[in-house]
Amino acid sequence: MRLRAVASEVSRRWPRRLTLRSRPRARKLKCRLTSISPNYGHPFNSLILNDEYVLGVKTASKKRLREIDRRLRFLTKRIEAARVVDPTTQTNTEQVFFGATITYANSRNEEKTVTIVGIDEANLEKGRISWIAPIARALMKAYEGDTVQLRIPGGIETLEIIEIRYEAVE
């Protein structure tokens, strides 16, 4: 009941001042809680606050959409530039190249087997390492029986290549 009285009084005092044309010129309101007493305002104030809320939601969703579009463009370019490499067609099988499966022994005589794959396929649990990983770079262009030096944070580790094979990656 009281709200209707306030609304009718506002419409009598400002009959034509509250038009849609004046709304875009409204400035942002700096809201700060100064007391616990009720905050009274006229209906135009609530329209401004509502518009700011709606615009904030729309801005956030537009920003998320831009992020998705950016990621989509990135992935599209990656797919267009991708080349499929079949390791079984490698002609020089005595040397380590992309797609090789290598068994090596480290300085503690632990044997490990890794496959050199692309960046997106790397998975250490399955023994697949990226071609840009430090260990892959150390192993590249080495022959079976060679020893290579791998720089690690604790110093330099020597790796001995036991076996090189080229098989289809699942």
From TrEMBL:
Start and end residues of each Transcription elongation factor GreA/GreB C-terminal domain: 93-166
Keywords: Elongation factor, Protein biosynthesis
Protein name: GreA/GreB family elongation factor
Organism in which the protein naturally occurs: Magnetospirillum sulfuroxidans
tRNA processing as UniProt keyword: no
GO function terms (MF aspect): translation elongation factor activity
